[in-house]
Batch of 3 targets.
Target 1
Amino acid sequence: MNEFLQGGLYGGGIIVAIMTSLLFVLWTERKMAARMQSRIGPNIIDPLGFLQAPADVLKLLQKEDIVPEKADRALFNYAPVLGAAVAIAVAAVVPFSATIVGADLDVGVLYLLAAGAVGVLPVFAAGWGSNNKFALLGAMRAIAQSVSYEVPLVLAALVPVILTGSMKVSEIVTFQQNHHWLIVWPFFLGVPAFVLFMLAMLAESNRIPFDIPEAESELVAGITTEYTGMKFGLFYMAEYLHTVIASAVAASLFLGGYDGPFAPGVWWMVAKTFGMVVAIYYLRWSLMRFRSDQLMALCWRWLVPTGVVLVVASALFVVFAG
Amino acid sequence: MAVSETPPVVAPAPSVRTVDTGTNFRHPLYQVLLETPGLTVGTAALDDLMTWGLTNAMWIFPMATSCCGIEFMATAASRVDIDRMGVIVRATPRQADVMVVAGTITTKMAPRVLKLWEQMPEPKWCIAMGSCAISGDFYRNLYSVVPGVDTFLPVDVYVPGCPPNPEALMHGMMRLQEKVRRQRKGENVVPEVKPELLKITQPSVPRLTDPSRPSEQSHQQELSSDDPTTTEETAALVVPAGEAPTLAPLVAADFEGLLGELGVATLPTDGPPIIPLAQHLELARRLKAIGYKQLVTIAASHWPAGKGRKGADAAEVEHYEIAFAVRTIGQGSRVASWAVKALPTEPVLTLSGIYAGADWQEREQFDLVGVKFAGHPDLRRIMLAENADAHPLRREFPADAHAAPWR
């Protein structure tokens, strides 16, 4: 079969799978949030509320599409599409099993960090293109936050790279299969690096407790202030995509990826990813919002030095104990 | 209204607005599908599906201004949990479907509410929650309140109550869903009937101070009777008839001294000392110098000419009485208050150069009473709508404020 056709079909399959899983993830978050606030959550549409997300999408599709008169039309219209595309692009290098991997790049870790960093651009485009002061302020905050947290993210991702000696994500997983999951041994490097990675990933996705870019009490709705209907839906989707894919990446780098007994690898990958998603939502709905300066202080005073120490320690560990 | 000395602030005549009720909106994609031949059955099913999506994901824009807003929050909280019907509260009008007007809308707020409504994308609906949003309720004769939001918004559902409880709002949402379903099927939907208004009149219950109030009478008799069982404490409360109590003027010594220096010798016992207008600013400056650093309040009242006014001195001319109060800061705080009388033609000098807090206080008195403070840096309206053209606390302002022309 033609290589490109195969790649296209495969990529399409992955995207459809992730999008489908989003419906379930959305349901999980809504129900979990409700339970944590001692509510019930959607249960009138059907007893379990599974149809709530499809109903939301149907409604968003029917809404009037408003582009503000003085907005930059091109930036305004392409930003949501770009946002969703960039979020899903990271999934290309994640191995969902030994055989299911989109592009097993030699510089896989570098690629996923780079693709994640590009995610700032649609946010900036949306904020600038909306020609709305709240959107612009939200975008400014989001960019400051994302660019700052890029540093601990890279440092945390460097730890598995140094420990396994490879930037290829599949090789990192294979290494963990043959030795230990990085979170198990060396745990004094794996656990802090994992926590650091998750914190930075949470901050990158701009959600609670790092959701100051769309603090509704100050900034209406941040960058999405002017977006109606499905354009807003795409932004919303990009956030969830980001959470799911960040979880998959963390599972691959630290939790052994598709490694696990009894069941085929892909099920282990799904289980680990979903476990990570639930953990993130648990954090998200039990913590409150940081202030902007607290956020920056956390990054530059604590996470970055920790990251540097971890990277140096992993290098020493590889030289003397590995 | 004879408010000759007040200049009109900003009074452009409000143009007649036509409000789009949102029933004519069709998504372009939907139109294409409708025009494709052979898809009648399919489009009917699709239409049902779309309506199902639309009615089950109604996101609310909360236009909550008063106590109804609290009930609105309770609707979203755990007891009723409006999220069960898929309702999310969005802070931006761009992503909302239903505007819930919960609370009194003032004339100053109304243009902003309309602006937010116009920013919402079609299809959109409006719920008037609570008596104030429906009719203005007992504020409806007030000079600053809109008598019902349906005067400028197309209201779909009225949720009566003061405030309505959360279940009532949820029922309102369900009625809205039903309305949308029937509308989308092409049925003729009768507009919801506005709830009947209560006729609020002056209550016939006698006031507490009314001597004709029966319980009050018996109580007074009981106190003043020569009942031997009256204890010493209750006896002390009885004021002997005929003897007016002598009250010493409660003025701090330093303030009294200052007044003496300015030539105000006799202090009145029934109110603040009245200062000649010329010494007003000097008094404030010296009070601040001796430690009265905080301005408490400025309160003005308007007195029309006494001629023909019941119980008034016929020689009295139209004037303002303006009371000022300042205090020292810290423990054992002392308050100094004084008043000035000014004819409408006499300029009252502003205190905003001495007390920064006087700026807004004076703007308020200008807004409501119409006192023009001379030398004020920014004497604009602060509370009423920009297009208001009268000062409602003046005596000649009619009590029936349907006359307030800017509403």
Target 2
Amino acid sequence: MVVEIGHFALVLAFALALVQSVAPIWGSRTGDIRLMATAAPSALGQLLFVAIAAAALVHAHVVSDFSVVNVVENSHSLKPLLYKITGVWGNHEGSMLLWVLILALFGGLVALFGANLPASLKANVLAVQAWIASAFYLFILCTSNPFARISPAPLEGNDLNPVLQDIGLAIHPPLLYLGYVGFSIAFSFAVAALIDGRIDAAWARWVRPWSLAAWIFLTLGIAMGSYWAYYELGWGGWWFWDPVENASFMPWLAGTALLHSAVVMEKRDALKIWTILLAILTFSLSLLGTFLVRSGVLTSVHAFATDPERGVFILGILCLFIGGSLTLFAWRAPGLKPGGLFAPISREGALVFNNLFLTVGCAIVLVGTLYPLLYEMATGAKITVGPPFFNLVFGAFIAVLLVAVPLGPMLAWKRGDLLAAAERLWLALALAAIAAAAVWWPSTGAILTALGVGLAVWVMAGAVVEWAARIKLFRAPLADSLSRARGLPGAAWGMTFAHFGIGMVILGIVSETSWNEERILAMKPGEVVTIGGYQVKLDGMIPRQGENFSEEAAHFSIRRGGVQVTFLEPSRRMFATRRTATSETAIATFGFSQLYIALGETDKTGASAVRLYWKPLVTLIWLGAVVMAFGGLCSLLDRRLRVGAPVPARKAGSKHVGPGNIDPGAPAAPVAAE
Amino acid sequence: MTRKQRRLTLIAVAGLVVAAAGALVLYALTDKIVFFNSPSDIVAKHPQPGIRIRLGGLVKEGSVERGADAHVAFEVTDTVASVPVTYVGILPDLFREGQGVVAEGAFDASGKLVADTVLAKHDERYMPKEVADALKKSGEWRGKTAAK
């Protein structure tokens, strides 16, 4: 019964989405306020009905209703409750339901918080959201119904893939989808603007918070996925350039570019058309990612759905939305008024540089991801484009961009002075040179490592120097600097944190790839191995029993200089229901570095295969991403970005919030120096 | 500079960057890609030692030998031909005789594939697409039980 209510609610959501696709936009074309006003309630109604559908599916999983195919295939009565819940989106049908739930959530948020959006813009935005939603409801109802019944109902389910029975599944997909799908708002705003045929600086102020929120979630989602793969897969890798990883990385690159170009548009009313295009491209890449992951078109460890019918359907959705929005763009964009002028060397110029390299980087990832598909279609031969390709090509391009990261914020709007900017960064440059030399000197030859460390220090120190310059640290009395720091806008703090975070990520990557130690050997109880300056002793094996598995754990004591510092217990789990084993790694964190042990099989002589890693500064990779996301949060909480927040009186004259203001005339006076 | 000149500068710089990216991509795509082969392909083509390839098929029953210090030797077969593989390290959790596997590495002079990466099929339903295709080709496809 509950399951049928869920199914019915999903159909109702689809019906509402169809109404929402047509009525508001009809209203905005004919100027009918009542029709436009239907958008918000129907968006909220959609959210309610999808939430009911999702709740029904969760309920079926929690009570182990084996008359539902989805539950049979992915659950087991003995599975721990947490994994019964997370297992809901650990499969194709459930994850698509999560996708539309989040889409409806964002639509609902626009309906709730968009009270002071111009009525026709709001109506158009919600209508475009509903187009996307309708397509995906139809996809779920036609090809991936999670509520399908099976008769006779089996007594027991097939259980969830043990690799997915992990806390990572609880966090990673929802975060990633919040990011992926969150960019749909930027897309809807862009299409709505194209339909209306007008766009101004105020438009960027609406779009930026939504893109920023999506970007924060996507950043955290990617970092979380990377850490999950790192500890779950047992070979110490944290990024594989797997097509599915690329699928989430491409919208991230485009979204990062979008955030930067939206700044130019908001502050200087330039790059309008480009920003619109980026908003469309970012969500198109999210759709492409959904297609790659959900159609199983690529060989990938993530592809747990391999049904051509679904693939063709999503491909249709993909072509419709990407093709449609780009056609609309080609038709309407030339009519948009171009924005303000700026010199090549200026803050705007720097942000254009950022956009150029991020989009080219994104295109490189796209080519590398799709090339095997195209190659196979053309020649029939199968190839893999792996880390050697991406590290070389993407690495080379992104390094150029990273060198420029500290310089950009030092340039003035409109017309900047590159030499003066470099001069103000002398301290960061000196620190970077010292760090690079310190790495290069003891082990001459590791030139790439030295350059990498220098680059990381340059980016981090550059962020700090820029912040210090803003608050006049050491150049004004300390109390004065502190009050300046308090007065810094959230967006400025956000940039400092985000750029510092990138530096952390680079340092982590360089350190992990250059100084990582690996030992693979067979160990018997009592044996000791030294790695990363730690003595690791295998004390013995301990058999244990879990809720739905039995495991063999190895007890390792970790000593440094004869003193025991900690112990680690990696294990191998046997899951009876799927007759599969998983290896659970054990990780000890020392400072920013990690000692990582994975356990293999035990042979007849009693020796266990053991894989040990010493990963210096590896946690900086993920901590850096968290710092970047925190920067995004600071920027999101910026008072001036909050839509509807009262505009400070002294700036009121130069801000153009009015929707009908096609040409804001003189660009807003440079607000602070950001 | 006039608006037009600025636009031209921008387009020229962007064009240069894109051209550089294109050149690098083309270079890397000829040099850094790895071809997938079935055991029959290998027997027919005899790839040069030292060139990286991916080999996919089933782990031959009874062929897995575990040596000292996590050395493993096994054979990959598509039931028509089989190719010996050596690997040092911990095999993936789902590695099993008679199951699908992909090994990546280069051949040594004696014709053994020295693999540095071994991937096993992901779960009960999913098999690497290239393995499934290779098996279909050799008629060893078992339909639903092997992959969906």
Target 3
Amino acid sequence: MTTNGHIEKKRLENPPSTIKFKIQRREKEGAPASWETFAIDYRRNLNVISALMEIRKNPVTVEGRQTTPPVWDMSCLEQVCGICTMVIDGKVRQSCSALIDDLLVASGSDTISLAPMSKFPNVRDLKVDRSKMFDHLKQVKAWVDLDGSYDLGPGPHVTNELAQERYALSRCMTCGCCLEACPQYGDDNYIGPQAIAQAHLFNMHPTGKANMEERLNGLLGDDGIGNCGNAQNCVQVCPMSLPLTKAIYQTNRDITVEAIFGWLKK
Amino acid sequence: MASSSLKFAIVGGGLAGLAAAMKLAEAGHMVDLISVVPVKRSHSVCAQGGINGAVNTKGEGDSPAKHLDDTVYGGDFLANQPPVKRMTDMAPEIIYLFDRMGVPFSRTKEGLMDFRRFGGTLHHRTAFSGASTGQQLLYALDEQVRRWEVEKRVTKYEGWEMLSLVLDDHQVCRGLVAMNLQTLELKSFAADAVIMATGGPGMVFGKSTNSQTCTGSAVAACYLQGARYANGEFIQVHPTSIPGEDKLRLMSESARGEGGRVWVPRDPMDARKPKDIPDADRRYFLEEKYPAYGNLVPRDIATREIFQVCLEGHGVGGENQVYLDLTHIPADTLTEKLGAILEIYEMFVGDDPRYVPMRIFPGVHYSMGGLWVDFEQRTNIPGLFAAGECDYSIHGANRLGANSLLSCVYGGFVAAPSAMEYAKNVERGSSESNGIHAAELARQEAINQSIIKSEGGENQYKLHEELGKVMTDNVTVVRYNDRLQATDDKIRELQDRFSKISINDSNLWATQAIPHARQLKNMFELARVITLGALNRNESRGAHYKPEFPDRDDENFMKTTVAEYSAEAPVLSYEPIDVSLVEPRKRDYSSKKAKA
């Protein structure tokens, strides 16, 4: 509906009196997965986190069976820390910004399914272990090699254009959406888009550039950038809209340039 | 490990903790870094606005001395001034350091760092990186500390929660005990010195703008073991936050700056859509009461008025919410000026604020109080240091915008050398072998077991909700002594009921029930410190406002409140303040400027 240029979002008409959550349960890593369904009273302005908080208070399934409270990770609830990522109605995203009304409108159902990300060790229920993503950041040396943290005056001149381009990549919150959606990522065979984008973030910086070769070397192993299949799923699911495919393209180009002209420097 | 290298434990991996870790590792020492979440997910990511430093790039004659003046004036003369001066002096070099680390600060056309204006100052003093400066600064330190992790100087324990300090017979801190949140394994960390950098206690109020990890639990543990807690009653409440079922999200003050109007329907139960309610049936209560400043009254006044309207039952739908209305401004103008912040509202509420008035309510935002420290970030417990929001030292009775990121880094940069100096000279003794670590581990394990075995049917999450409600109703914006007393009675009732909780999780692997129960138990203690500190302070100053005592009383209360634990109730005492640098004067933002 349009009034005065306002495209009103499709509203949930006649909301159900209760909403159901079908939640994947797992006691611990390696244990079998199962599903349990919970129901809570519908209220306006619920998100997945507030529904989980409600269920946690009194975890009884729709069959009336007392069970353990679902376990999940949460922290900032503003979609900036990345911790609460899970698979909601089949789509990987942060649960804090997943609004119940939107999910019900999109599915036309009164049930929402919650599952952990599948590409990481499943600690319990909806909680996963993404420490590998941080290891990947070590592998590509995603930092500027400072001489020291004492007072050495300002950094190099940087144009605002470059600052903005780097800012877009620097918003990566290591949430793992891109890896979950990537058809190539899994079983340690591919480092994935997040680490490549972070390598590029520092390769673009006037000081960071000095270590470009080391960073690119981190991307040339068996799990390296060559494994990208160009499915472009990463850029579709990134909640921070990082230009991931562009970063992969530019990094590939840097590798080619380095391969052709690198010997001149030796 | 080199013979000269010392061993430190840092609790908390936000800006303050990472800043200290970087300094210690750089000096060649070993650091155990303990954090409940991966450090890159710490609450520092939530800061949007920027970081203050009088770099004076705009030809305005700004200086660290002016920054000092703005900070102590904004803090209503409750801060000791020497550490504030040291911080404002250090601010430009801190900002330059982040620039060297590669933070994508917004730039001028010459390629220099850009600065903008923020609340409580007349100068362009705030460096910023898009609308997520906290995230960008945190990431820069996270990257540098990762470098030291690769060098094996820093060992991260992410997903571990500190439970208590390990103190020797002379009350000297020799390390700490922490719990693995996955396995519930308890481990003691021996250290020559411990630095607390755990942030604020927003969860004491149930819902706040803080992250879920901001329980204050680790700081409360220090307090229970003898650390002094200062100025607990000073809690900053931001006037405009977006109420959610799960938390309160910040709505920037710039919405009012661009012409937003605050109102409620004359009939709170008016069923019409807001835009169908004619002006005659609306109450623009800020404009009515403050015709000169209208919706742009200072932050604390706006907060108080909105709170009062809702407390009296006039909020929209009778609930704790009022309209913040931008719909009279052309949509294109709003998109251009406020785009990013309006998107946040739309993302979490689902309404487009360009066409539907926002529903907002004041939200607990920041604790000026925290662990008592001296000018070198030392607590009263030898070997225990504190930095960042969890220490009380910088902001007095009220914090200025964009000073929090600065104070975190400053605190870490002072705590680290101070801890090194201490550790170099401390007598090691035989703390590892004489059983104090084993004894503390056993004590903490017994607490876990008592929680696991506890029965009585009380629900920990419901108790937390009750705590949050009574604290938010009575110990935030407007404070009355009878209600503060009633709140303390209520907290003690909740403590009593807590002894009868039944954990509702039979699976102890990665359970959240036991950590939450332990946090809640500690939150009750901090809640009492905050409440009784407020009860005892019979004046109004900064964020602390009592209608019964509406004026600032320098003679009796220009003093730091110091709380020390005792089983009965916190023991309060008052410490004079060092105002040797800026003469105290009346704080008054109603006229243009009352400068010294």
